[in-house]
Sequence to fold (234 residues):
Amino acid sequence: MKLINPHLKYSTHQKILVAVDCSIFGFDSKTLKILLFRRKVEPLKGEWSLIGAFLQNDLSIVDGAKQILLESTGLSDIYLEQLRTYGAVKRDPVERVISVGFYSLIRIDELNIRSVEDFDAKWFDINEMPELILDHGDMVKDAIAAFQLKARHEPIGFNLLPEHFTIPQLQSLYESIYQTKRDSRNFRKKVLSLNIIEKTDLKDKTGSKKGAFLYTFKKKVKLKNKERHFLFDF
Fold:
């Protein structure tokens, strides 16, 4: 391979900045939520936005997104999916900025509260979000649509649940994802038929003295193609 001059530069006539913005979703056993942040810089300082930052020269786009999530939540091993690129010429009123959108699914019970507070962040129900800066509202809509599509084929929703959960909690999760109610008896039957969760000896007694058995996800289970739409097709 021909050696490349390390001092070689492309001739640039304008500066284009690259940013990474992430829609962070969580679940509180009742509703699907999104983590929003008060913007700390001008323009639009103090307005609600997704967590994001300009990409550093020594980081790949994916590594940049992981770094942002680590700094804002204190979590490193979490679900992260690249969404799409947002490049409208005037999407940012200050300079030409191209943003790569991501979405992430985290367990609220594992969240580093101090990190969130440092970022002046707050959880919002996805149906009660405030107005967001720039095109972040479009990013959230695209992220939800991509999340819903992915969840139809893969059990990624389990990334939002604690390690142990009840079947009603699982049902509430998927009802929140798809904004629709399901028959509890049919839902339980479908879930158990897929053999992707297993019952533990633990019980959740917050609702009654008798309690409800807690389940956990079989992480090594791979859904067969013929089963993929059986549970997750809402």
